[in-house]
Amino acid sequence: MNGIVKAASEGADTDYIGMMINAFCFTTEYFEAKESRGSSISVPKNVSVNGLLHQLKALDEFDTRSRAGMIRSPTLSVHGLDDIMVEPRLGDELADQIEGCRRIRIPGVGHTIKPSLYSEAFTEHLARNSRRS
Fold first, then answer.
1. Last residue of some domain: 15, 32, 61?
2. Which helix (H) or strand (E) holds 105?
3. Is residue 133 scored above 70 in pLDDT?
4. pLDDT tens sequence across 72-109
5. pLDDT band at 69, cuts 50/70/90?
6. Domain range enclosing 23
7. Is the same domain home to 6 and 56?
8. Residues 46, 21: one domain?
9. What are the residues whose beta carbons fall under 8 Å from the beta carbon of 72, sequence distance 6 or more?
10. Are 74 and 36 in a shared domain?
11. What is the Cα–Cα distance from 66 to 98, expressed in whole angstroms?
């Protein structure tokens, strides 16, 4: 992330910055599948240095692990197993702090997860826990 911020602050092309951001969010397999289908990959537009700095600060400083154990609501943790921005073990450590937390770990997926990959489980989670109220 530091390299992305540095490149943006030095005036790198916004498409280049967007491609670097995508590299943090998606897996190699995602890019290969898109390429094999001849599909284009959308690139984030209007990326600002200030926005990147805020994101970097959030990544470096925001840590919920000490408060996660206070969550008493039914919780579903969804994490891509190929996430390089937030490693799956960190998602597991957070889920471990939440009593009764249900986990979904999706292979072949990075930081950005299509809702269709977990929507059924999410709907089931909501249905199961709405009966508890």
1. 61
2. strand 102-106
3. no
4. 999 999 999 999 888 899 999 999 999 999 999 999 88
5. very high
6. 2-61
7. yes
8. yes
9. 99
10. no
11. 11
Where b means 16+ CB within 10 Å and e means fewer, 14-32 reads eeebbebbbebbbbeebee
Q: What is the mean pLDDT of residues 11-15?
A: 79
* Rounded Cα distance, 97 and 67, in Å: 8
pTM of structure: 0.72
Listed in sequence order, the DSSP H helices in the chain are 2-9, 14-25, 28-37, 49-61, 65-68, 88-96, 119-130
One domain for residues 97 and 111: yes
Place of tokens 């999706």: 106
Identify whether residues 70 and 124 lie together within a single domain.
yes
Domains contained in the chain, number: 2
Same domain? 42 vs 78 = no
Local confidence band at 41 (pLDDT 50, 70, 90 cut-offs):
confident
Higher pLDDT: 89 or 5? It is 89
Q: Please, what is the angle between helix 2-9 and helix 14-25, to 10°? A: 170
Among 10, 45, 61, the domain-final residue is 61
